[in-house]
Specification:
Blueprint (H helix, E strand, L loop, with lengths): L2 E5 L3 H12 L3 E5 L3 H8 L10 H10 L3 E4 L2 H5 L4 E4 L14 H13 L4 E5 L7 H10 L6 E5 L9 H6 L4 E4 L3 H11 L9 E4 L1 H32 L3 H9 L20 H14 L5 H13 L3 H8 L8 E5 L14 H11 L3 E5 L4 H8 L4 E2 L12 E4 L11 H7 L4 E4 L6 H6 L3 E3 L13
Parallel strand pairs: 1-2, 1-4, 2-3, 4-5, 5-6, 7-8, 9-10, 9-12, 10-11, 12-13, 13-14
Helix pairs in contact: 1-3, 5-6, 9-11, 9-12
Length: 442
C-alpha cells in the first residue's frame, strides 16, 4: 500500500486517484475549487466517465479516497505526489506550464522528507527539469521528479488505467524507479510492460503517440474526401488497408475531424516545441490545417443541397461531444458546425446524451436543446450527425421521416449504410461515399 497525493482533480487527476485507490492505496486528491471538493466528498463525480462513479463511491466509503483544498495537508504523509494539472495551449500553441511550476514551487516549501513527484500531465520535453529546479529553490530534503504520461481514452479511461497496454516511466533515479515499479506492478499482472526510460524520452513519447494517431485520422479523412471526387467508397478502402497488420484497423474511420482535450493541444504543443528547437514538423502542420477544414466539411454539402441559402432553415444536430461516451466538448466539431450554421442564417436544435449542459455554458441559448434525439427533429429541414453515440446507430427511421420536413440526413460519422438509406428513400450525404440522392427538393 502506497500513500499517494494527486494534485488536480480534472479528468486525468480524478481517474488516476480513484484507480490507485481501487488497488488498495491510500489516496488524497487536492484541488483549489472548494465547491468541487465538497461535492466530491459527498460522493458526486464532477465529470462523466463510464464506470468511474462505481469505484469512486466504493473507495470513498472504504476511506481509501479523500479530498482537500489544502496542499500541505494533502502531501504531508504522501510518498508519491502526482501533478495532474492543466497545461492549456497558449496563443502560440505552446503548453502553459504555470500551474505545474506554481505547485512545484509550493511543494519545495512544504516537503520535509523524501518524495517522488510525478508529472502526470502531458508536458513538453524538458518539463521534468523545470519542475526539479522549481522544487529545488526551497526544498531541504531529497526528492525525485518522474515523468509518467497518461494514455487514457475518454469513455474508456477506467479500463485503460486498470489494464494498461503499457506504463511509461521516465526517471534517472534508481530509488524512484523502485517506488514506481512497486506502484504499477498490480496493473500489469498479465504481462504488459512497464517501460523505464529517461525523463525527456517519456515526455516526448506521449506527444509522439497522440500526434501519430491524429495524423492517422487526418490521413484517412483526406482519403475520404478524395474518394468522393473519384467515385470510390472509403468504407471499402478502409477495410482494404486496415487488413494490413502494419497499418491496423483502428483510427481509420473517416469523419468531421478530431477534437477533445488531447489531440489538438498535443499536436500544437509538439509543433511549438519543434520551433523552439529550430525544427519544423511539416507533417503536423499539414495535419492541423486539414483537421481545421474537416470540422466544417459538411457545410459546402449542406449549402449545395439548399441551393446556397440556409437562411431560415432549421437543422437538427445529433451529438455535441467531441466523441461518444464523454461530456467533453473541447474542440468538438459540432461547435464549429453550429457556428457556421448560425452565421449562414439557420436555426439549430440539438441533442446529446451528456454534453448539452456544457455546450449551453459556452454558447448560451443561441440554439435549442431538445429533450431527446427525436424531439430535436420536429419541424427540421435536415438532420446533421456530429457524434457517433450508440443510441444514434439504430434509430426509428419512420419516426425520423415523420418529424423532418424532408428526408434529408447529413452524416458526419458514417453511421448508416448508404444502400439502406437509398432503399428508405432518404437524401443521404456522408464522408467519403457517394451521396444518396432521391431527388428531395429543398
Amino acid at each position: 500500500m502506497k500513500k499517494i497525493a494527486v494534485v488536480g482533480t480534472g479528468y486525468v487527476g480524478l481517474v488516476t486517484g480513484t484507480c490507485f485507490a481501487e488497488t488498495g492505496n491510500q489516496v488524497i486528491c487536492v484541488d483549489i475549487d472548494a465547491k468541487k471538493v465538497e461535492k466530491m466528498r459527498n460522493g458526486e463525480v464532477p465529470i462523466y466517465e463510464p464506470h468511474l462513479d462505481v469505484i469512486f463511491e466504493r473507495n470513498i466509503k472504504a476511506n481509501r479516497l479523500s479530498f482537500t483544498t489544502d496542499l500541505a495537508e494533502g502531501i504531508k504523509d504522501a510518498e508519491i505526489i502526482f501533478l495532474a494539472l492543466p497545461t492549456p495551449p497558449g496563443e502560440d500553441g505552446s503548453a502553459d506550464l504555470s500551474y505545474i511550476i506554481g505547485v512545484a514551487n509550493e511543494l519545495g516549501k512544504l516537503i520535509t522528507d523524501y518524495k517522488v513527484i510525478v508529472d502526470k500531465s502531458t508536458v513538453p520535453v524538458g518539463t521534468a527539469e523545470k519542475v526539479h529546479a522549481a522544487v529545488s529553490e526551497h526544498a531541504t530534503c531529497d526528492f525525485d521528479v518522474v515523468s509518467n504520461p497518461e494514455f487514457l481514452r475518454e469513455g474508456f479511461a477506467v479500463d485503460d488505467f486498470l489494464k494498461p497496454d503499457r506504463v511509461v516511466i521516465g526517471t534517472s533515479s534508481d530509488r524512484a524507479m523502485k517506488v514506481m515499479d512497486q506502484l504499477y506492478k498490480p496493473f500489469v499482472r498479465q504481462g504488459n510492460p512497464i517501460i523505464f526510460m529517461d525523463e525527456k524520452s517519456a515526455e516526448l513519447t506521449k506527444y509522439a503517440a497522440n500526434s501519430f494517431l491524429a495524423t492517422k485520422i487526418t490521413f484517412m479523412n483526406e482519403v475520404a474526401n478524395f474518394c468522393e471526387l473519384v467515385g470510390a467508397d472509403v468504407d471499402k478502402v478502409r477495410i482494404g488497408i486496415g487488413s494490413d497488420e502494419r497499418i491496423g484497423k483502428r483510427f481509420l474511420f473517416p469523419g468531421i475531424g478530431y477534437g477533445g482535450s488531447c489531440f489538438p493541444k498535443d499536436v500544437q504543443a509538439l509543433v511549438k516545441s519543434g520551433r523552439e528547437n529550430n525544427f519544423d514538423f511539416e507533417i503536423l502542420n499539414a495535419v492541423m490545417a486539414v483537421n481545421e477544414n474537416q470540422k466544417t466539411v459538411m457545410m459546402p454539402k449542406m449549402k449545395n443541397f439548399f441551393r446556397g441559402n440556409l437562411t431560415g432553415k432549421k437543422i437538427a444536430i445529433w451529438g455535441l461531444a467531441f466523441k461518444p461516451d464523454t461530456d467533453d466538448i473541447r474542440e468538438a466539431p459540432a461547435l464549429y458546425m453550429i457556428d457556421e450554421l448560425l452565421k449562414a442564417g439557420a436555426t439549430v436544435s440539438a441533442f446529446d446524451p451528456e454534453a448539452m449542459e456544457n455546450v449551453q455554458g459556452v454558447i448560451g441559448d443561441t440554439i435549442q436543446f431538445a429533450k431527446d434525439e427525436y424531439a430535436a427533429l420536429e419541424g427540421a429541414d435536415a438532420l446533421l450527425i456530429c457524434t457517433e453515440w450508440g443510441i444514434f446507430r439504430n434509430p426509428d427511421f419512420d419516426k425520423i421521416e415523420a418529424l423532418l420536413k424532408d428526408k434529408v440526413i447529413f452524416d458526419g460519422r458514417n453511421l448508416f449504410d448508404a444502400q439502406e438509406m437509398n432503399v428508405k428513400g432518404f437524401y443521404y450525404s456522408s464522408i467519403g461515399r457517394q451521396t444518396v440522392d432521391n431527388s428531395v427538393k429543398a
